[in-house]
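Chain A, query sequence.
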Amino acid sequence: MHETTPEVFLIARPSIDIEGMRGYLSDVGGESWLKRRLEESDGEPNGGELIVEFGGRACYRSWEPGLNVNVTKVRTDQREYFANILRSAHGSVLEHANYSFALRNVSRTFTHELVRHRAGSAFSQESLRYVRLTDIGFRVAPALEPVREQVLAIVEQLEEFQLSAAAKLGIDEEGVPFHVKKEVTSALRSSDVLLATSRQLVLGATPAESLAVAGRVSRALVGVVATACAATPPRFVVAKGGITSSDIATEALRIRRAEVIGQLFPGMVSVWLAADGEADAGLPFVVFAGNVGETSALADAVTLLRGESPKVGASHA
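Chain A, predicted structure.
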């Protein structure tokens, strides 16, 4: 037998694809940050440090002031930036710097502790709490193309709400603390949820099979709504289509008794209020008839339920 001494060998370290990083930054507007880091390192930056800082700044879109309207100044010194990450316990971004070591003459007890406590994968995503949008990007899925104009109307109103709410709350005024901006931004991004099924007609080989397809779609829709509403009680629910409205009310929300309190728009959209004793007592439930109303009618209904006024010129009489 022989006595050994533990040894550690560094066998791999982060390697940065500068062009790939530059391509991303040219799209989001952070080229000046990369240019500064390359100049400071004579074109040979430390890969681990660069990827960690990249991950952190991606979360806040803090490459330079103004890209995120909540951020009016940024730390340009890399050491100060890392110190702030450690103070704020934003440790996940550190996991992007992956180094591999070969361990020699160490015990199985030691290696098993490493396996048990491995950090795992690293993910850095632009934060919904910190990044306030003034221009909302969106994609209309192919299945929603038949209702594209309605989707656009809803997105447009969401964007207008982001801007008008920020102006009314004065969060861009001089001296507003960042934690206040963060709280408001988080609330703005916790918005209303739109759930839609495809308008494509799917038929079975027989009338009975076609009916079964409709039943499966209805059960799936009911299940999603019931689960979501149980997890986060909604302020209101709007259901579009007569059969859909019935299924959502009776199956997803389990409403058995409700009071019809009036019409949201003349002649076509009624508002129910779940009766006392119901699980969702007091919940406004809007029955929005299918294939009625102008393009913006659904978006205007949501606007009214929020307690706001629809866009000037909207008419659904």
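The chain has a mean pLDDT of 81. The first strand starts at residue 7 and ends at 12.
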